[in-house]
């Protein structure tokens, strides 16, 4: 087919970072991400200009998926952040803020991009080497013998989502539930002889209830409306404990001919009715289930009323319309195999088991509670989340899922990083001291002048401190102590002179350094050049055995976020041309 209009030539843009329009868009995106950062971040409402659904959020995943841009550089950065979040679930805003800040500092400093890229790569290696040291002052070992650090880790994720609108008591309650659900999915006993398989957490959302009504149940809660809960089912549920044999079907057992697809069906005169033949096949399936002593009969889709009546008459508990989301959790918990055909007999290995089942009332809903069997299978638990409205509930559900993912990452590497901006200020101080001391050697190895190296070093350290500064949204003052280089946020209206302890908070941002137990501390405003008497504070050596940390971040997620931010900033700085197809 010939084109209606002549194909236009592609548009080639030279040095895109030198264009004011591109810089304005990047500055705007940086401001949006910065304003959402931390527990006091501002919410964003995103909606189409012609109407439709309004999204209220402060999470990076929801925000970046909802906000679209025609600028290729922004698309590239957004895609890299979303890819990081798909793997680690945390530190998305951190990645974006640090990436944009690095680009901005290079543009303002006048450094050539090629020089800045070399310096950034070298300083990134310094940071990763520092964070991987055993005596790194930013790292905290996560002790699985105590839930304290796990709850702190979960609370740091949940409290950083202000759209959840939780009080401190509610944050603590939800964080404890998240850890409880996580521990239920971790297998216990000797797992060295076989690969470790983690369980699964299924989330049930209840709108209109108090947050403190949220809870966790071992096993699986299945929504069963009153119209589906037959009196014989109630009697069956009230009988003694199991285990009960379970059969699970993903194929529709409604008996409709439409299940076979579109087309014509020719029936000769005197031939049996096709629907009667299908019903006979379904009843044979029911007979086999009764013969094989199946006690729980479940289907993803619809079950024919006659088959339901037959099964219930023989004492089976019948549940239909499960939906596709519950199939995999049921398979994982019961060990059943989902049957996709009813024309053939059910294979014996397709049956699963549940320890017991009974009805629970959760809010205004009646739900069937399936208990996991005694056999060592991957555990499945259900987290019931309650909140006042749908928007808060969606944010809370997303936050709990991210917290669970972060906790799972901790199994692989049981280490956390100090939160509250302390890791960034401490690491910036370390890199600044090391870089300044070794500036001549580093500049020579990179093939740049020492003045350019120090300029790039200053921009890199300032970008790290910018992340800590982004935690403040109310006009307060950000300080750093001159001994441990921890971040000390001071609320608005409480001025501070250098060295004055009167208005400094009792603890630093992460809660590790206490002002009362560290006499002689001095402070200076953050993001200013200062002489630092750097004294690393190693958790466990220079602190009490169980420091009361307020904020703890995921080591794995933040380390990858740091690498993604620096590498993406270098990639954007290295782009000389952007070629766009405008057809």
UniProtKB/TrEMBL annotation:
It comes from the Eukaryota. GO terms for biological process: camera-type eye development; chaperone-mediated protein complex assembly; cilium assembly; convergent extension involved in gastrulation; heart looping; inner ear development; Kupffer's vesicle development; melanosome transport. Signal peptide: none annotated. GO terms for cellular component: cytoplasm; kinociliary basal body; nucleus. Pfam families: Cpn60_TCP1 (PF00118). InterPro entries: Cpn60/GroEL/TCP-1, GroEL-like_apical_dom_sf, GROEL-like_equatorial_sf, MKKS, TCP-1-like_intermed_sf. Gene3D superfamilies: GroEL, GroEL-like equatorial domain, TCP-1-like chaperonin intermediate domain. One of its GO terms (molecular function) is ATP binding. This is Molecular chaperone MKKS. It comes from Salmo salar (Atlantic salmon).
């Amino acid at each position: 087919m010939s084109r209606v209009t002549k194909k236009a030539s592609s548009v080639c843009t030279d040095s895109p970072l030198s264009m004011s329009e591109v810089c304005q868009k990047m500055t705007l995106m940086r401001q949006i991400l910065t304003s959402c950062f931390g527990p006091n971040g501002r919410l964003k409402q995103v909606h189409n200009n012609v109407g439709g659904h309004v999204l209220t959020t402060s999470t990076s995943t929801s925000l970046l998926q909802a906000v679209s841009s025609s600028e290729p550089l922004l698309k590239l950065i957004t895609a890299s952040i979303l890819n990081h979040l798909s793997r680690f679930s945390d530190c998305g805003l951190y990645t974006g803020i640090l990436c944009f800040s690095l680009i901005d500092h290079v543009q303002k400093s006048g450094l050539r991009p090629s020089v800045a890229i070399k310096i950034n790569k070298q300083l990134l290696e310094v940071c990763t080497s520092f964070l991987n040291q055993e005596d790194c002052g930013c790292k905290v070992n996560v002790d699985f013998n105590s839930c304290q650090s796990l709850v702190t880790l979960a609370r740091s994720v949940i409290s950083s989502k202000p759209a959840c609108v939780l009080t401190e008591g509610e944050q603590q309650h939800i964080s404890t539930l998240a850890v409880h659900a996580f521990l239920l999915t971790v297998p216990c006993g000797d797992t060295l002889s076989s690969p470790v398989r983690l369980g699964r957490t299924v989330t049930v959302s209840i709108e209109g209830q108090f947050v403190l009504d949220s809870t966790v149940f071992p096993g699986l809660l299945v929504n069963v409306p009153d119209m589906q809960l037959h009196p014989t089912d109630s009697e069956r549920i009230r009988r003694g404990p199991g285990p009960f044999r379970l059969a699970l079907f993903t194929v529709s057992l409604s008996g409709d001919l439409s299940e076979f697809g579109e087309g014509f069906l020719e029936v000769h005169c005197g031939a049996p009715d096709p629907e009667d033949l299908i019903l006979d096949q379904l009843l044979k399936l029911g007979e086999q289930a009764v013969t094989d002593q199946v006690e729980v009969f479940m289907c993803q889709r619809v079950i024919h009323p006659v088959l339901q009546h037959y099964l219930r008459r023989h004492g089976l508990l019948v549940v239909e319309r499960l939906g596709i989301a519950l199939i995999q959790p049921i398979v994982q918990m019961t060990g059943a195999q989902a049957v996709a055909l009813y024309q053939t007999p059910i294979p014996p290995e397709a049956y699963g088991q549940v320890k017991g089942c009974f009805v629970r009332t959760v809010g205004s809903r009646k739900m069937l509670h399936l208990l996991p069997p005694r056999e060592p299978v991957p555990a499945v638990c259900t987290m019931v989340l309650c909140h006042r409205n749908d928007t808060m509930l969606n944010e809370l559900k997303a936050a709990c899922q991210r917290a669970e993912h972060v906790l799972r990452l901790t199994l692989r590497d049981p280490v956390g990083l100090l939160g509250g901006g302390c890791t960034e200020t401490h690491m910036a101080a370390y890199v600044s001291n090391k870089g300044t001391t070794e500036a001549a050697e580093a500049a020579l190895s990179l093939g740049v002048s020492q003045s350019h190296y120090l300029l790039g070093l200053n921009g890199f350290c300032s970008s790290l401190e910018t992340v800590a500064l982004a935690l403040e949204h109310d006009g307060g003052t950000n300080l750093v102590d001159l001994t441990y280089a921890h971040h000390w946020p001071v609320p608005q209206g409480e001025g501070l002179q250098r060295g004055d302890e009167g208005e400094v908070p009792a603890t630093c941002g992460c809660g590790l350094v206490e002002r009362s137990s560290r006499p002689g501390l001095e402070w200076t405003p953050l993001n200013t050049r200062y002489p630092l008497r750097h004294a690393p504070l190693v958790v466990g050596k220079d602190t009490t055995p169980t420091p009361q940390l307020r904020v703890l971040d995921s080591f794995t997620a933040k380390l990858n976020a740091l690498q993604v931010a620096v590498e993406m900033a270098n990639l954007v700085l290295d782009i000389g041309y952007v070629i766009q197809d405008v057809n």
